[in-house]
Amino acid sequence: MREKSLPIIEKVKSHTQLLMVSEITDPRQIEFLEPLVDVYQVGARNMFNYDLLKELGQTLKPILLKRSFSAKIEEWLKATDYIIKGGNENIILCERGIRTFETKTRNTLDLNAVAFLKQESSFPVFVDPSHGTGLSQLVPALSQSAVCAGADGLLIEVHPNPDESLCDSQQALSFSDFENLMIKLKKLTQLYGKKL
User: In the chain, what percentage of residues exceed pLDDT 70?
Assistant: First the structure.
């Protein structure tokens, strides 16, 4: 929708009082998104879009950098260099699953990467178990596992009626499933001395 989406975004932000995270795919989108977006998300397919990363380095807003489904950890960290060179060090890494030989799930969620990054980098690390597996029934267990591995945040797809979702219906949690997960995560984060 490009610029046509701006009035919708303004209305939603005003109504919910929530921060806006928007995936960005093209450097030309920055100009019209800048006034409304609080966090730019670089999706897995754009992790290697170096022109986009360089432009995002010019903004001071946080960048949520998702790992490409084919990227090594070293390549993922090198992608951050393109943003940092522009002056923006406000980067959040997001593990969202990598491509392996496994066919039962959408991707293979690499929790090894989370534990490694928590030891070897200073960036916050988020995990997206929804895209990581593509299966809603696996999201609760992998969300809890991500917290145990050291994740600083989670991206979880939620929909009031997942069967009616226009996209990604198989990986979305219902409101009640999400509420149950949050109860478990609250206990788990307290155990690990983290805040929910």
Answer: 100
∠ CA 181-194-67, nearest 5°, is 70
Q: With helix as H, strand as E and coil as C, how does the chain read?
A: CHHHHHHHHHHHHHHHCCCCEEECCCHHHHHHHCCCCCEEEECHHHCCCHHHHHHHCCCCCCEEEECCCCCCHHHHHHHHHHHHCCCCCCEEEEECCECCCCCCCCCECCHHHHHHHHHHCCCCEEECHHHHHCCHHHHHHHHHHHHHHCCCEECCCECCCHHHCCCCHHHCECHHHHHHHHHHHHHHHHHCCCCC
CB 43 within 8 A of CB 54: no
Reference 59, options 79, 77, 41, 34; nearest CA is 34
What integer best gives the mean pLDDT of the chain? 95
Q: Which two tokens stand for residue 190?
A: 């307290």
Residue 127's nearest CA partner among 91, 99, 151 is 151
pTM given for the model: 0.94
Nearest alpha carbon to residue 44 among 117, 93, 104: 93
The structure tokens listed for 118 are 């928590």
